[in-house]
Specification:
This protein has about 425 residues and is α/β, with parallel strands linked by helices. It has 2 domains: about 250 residues, Alanine racemase (TIM Barrel), CATH 3.20.20; about 120 residues, Lyase, Ornithine Decarboxylase, Chain A, domain 1 (Beta Barrel). Helices cover about 30% and strands about 20% of the residues. It has 13 helices and 18 strands. The strands form 2 sheets. Strands 1, 11, 12, 13, 14, 15, 16, 17 and 18 form a 9-stranded mixed sheet that branches. An 8-stranded parallel β-barrel has the order 2-3-4-5-6-8-9-10, surrounded by 5 helices. Strand 3, helix 5 and strand 4 form a beta-alpha-beta unit. The longest helix is centred in the middle third of the chain and has 21 residues.
């Protein structure tokens, strides 16, 4: 949806100077907006209590990560570079949750060396951990619920929230969870957490509460079967933002109250202590607080009207990757009458476009466009196909200044991996070859 009035009021006065100084394209993030969302998140959930592991994949920039670390947030990492970024931002120990998928021995070793909380995604990963002498005392297990049938006579959507977990590559099968936890305990693990993520960009509480209910069911089962008390439940990162005009934002405070009631009711019913709640929110924390600034390079008339801009899929891939993805676009300094236009990039791919048949002011070359809600999964998903390189990132500081926090990629970066020492192994000897 359009950026907030506060963000616009801070950004638009300095935007012409930023465009003149830095050039386009660039992503620019709002320091004050990010910090205010952190405060709202904390106010909604601090009574639970909770831990927020910001999903580094959403916006892996050290300047942003340091802002979040200063607010007491931890980090969700799924690779060694993300782990390095979290540590560089000041996170250590259980302020890092390593939730990788298809995890290697090297990744396990680095995460253990950092003291991170390991979120185990599969029995094969536990097998690798079992080979090590330093099995941690605390582990978390990601659960794949599989297909579940709603009890007869139960109204509502029930497990319609699950989508197709049997086709998902994530998580320990629910029917294997007890056996896997029993094996972990035999290896020396003493504290356990559970993780599940059903929702993606949810604007309602229902999928999040459903996730909690499923994890609490498993917590009861583990206590009954093994005497294990689950100490934490990680609800994943599905909390969403309203991309489209007219969509209502998620009511964080109401979700916090609902989680509190659910946990209290469950604890009383089963005489078990309430587990700590964890989140892996990325999009909700930074998503609304970024825009992509891009200039019109060409006005083109084909069977439809086109505005070709100096950004593309390399700067923001979501509209091309997800057919239903929407990013609001505005022309802040253009007051021409409206027209219907496709906004496209320069890649040799027809889906390299930010908008299709979008109503915008009639655009001319050099007009500036803002693509909204690019503060998460924007720059991070960029790539370099066609040699179109990733753009710079800027930060709009609280004092109104604009700071470069990542330079644009250049040809020297694109060709850097072609600079290497010669390396070659000999051909294998052929059986029966003449000596």
């Amino acid at each position: 949806m359009p950026i907030s009035e506060d963000f616009g009021r801070r950004l638009l006065p300095v935007l012409p100077a930023a465009v003149e100084h830095f050039g386009t394209p660039f992503h620019v993030y709002d320091e004050q907006g990010i910090e205010e969302t952190c405060d709202a998140f904390d106010a909604a959930f601090r009574h639970l209590p909770y831990t927020e592991y910001f999903a580094v994949k959403a916006l892996p920039n050290p300047a942003v990560l340091r802002l979040l670390a200063d607010r007491g947030f931890g980090f969700d990492c799924s690779s060694l570079p993300e782990l390095a970024l979290a540590r560089e931002a000041g996170a250590a120990g259980d302020r890092i949750c390593f939730t990788s998928n298809n995890t290697s021995r090297e990744e396990l070793a680095e995460a253990l060396a950092a003291g991170a909380l390991l979120n185990i995604d599969d029995e094969a990963v536990l097998d690798k951990l079992a080979d090590r002498p330093d099995v941690p005392e605390t582990l978390c297990f990601r659960v794949n619920p599989g297909a579940r049938q709603r009890p007869a006579g139960t109204p509502g959507a029930g497990d319609a929230f699950l989508g197709n977990p049997e086709g998902a590559k994530f998580g320990v099968r629910a029917d294997r969870l007890t056996a896997v936890v029993a094996r972990a305990r035999a290896l020396g693990v003493r504290s356990f957490g559970l993780h599940m993520m059903l929702a993606s960009n949810s604007l309602t509480a229902a999928p999040v509460l459903h996730t909690l209910d499923l994890l609490l069911e498993h917590a009861v089962e583990l206590h009954r079967e093994l005497g294990v008390t689950v100490g934490s439940v990680n609800l994943g990162g599905g909390l969403g933002i309203p991309y489209r005009p007219g969509e209502r934002p998620l009511d964080l405070a109401a979700l916090g109250r609902a989680l509190d009631v659910r946990l209290d009711t469950w604890s009383r019913a089963h005489a078990l202590p309430r587990p700590r709640v964890a989140f892996e929110s990325g999009r909700l924390i930074t998503g609304p607080h970024g825009v992509l600034a891009t200039r019109v390079v060409n006005r083109m008339t084909k069977w439809r009207e086109y505005a070709g801009v100096d950004a593309g899929m390399s700067s923001l891939m979501r509209p091309a990757l997800y057919p239903t993805a929407y990013h609001h676009i505005t022309a802040p300094f253009t007051d021409a009458p409206p027209e219907q236009v496709d906004v496209v990039g320069s890649l040799c791919e027809n889906n390299d476009r930010f908008a299709e048949r979008r109503e915008l002011p009639a655009l001319a070359e050099d007009d500036l466009l803002l693509v909204h809600d690019t503060g998460a999964h924007g720059h991070a998903m960029g790539f370099t196909y066609n040699g179109r390189l990733r753009p710079q990132e800027l930060m709009l500081r609280r004092d109104g200044s604009v700071e470069l926090i990542r330079r644009a990629e250049e040809e020297r970066d694109h060709f850097a991996t072609l600079d290497f020492a010669p390396d070659r192994i000999g051909a294998p000897a052929l059986a029966g070859a003449a000596g």
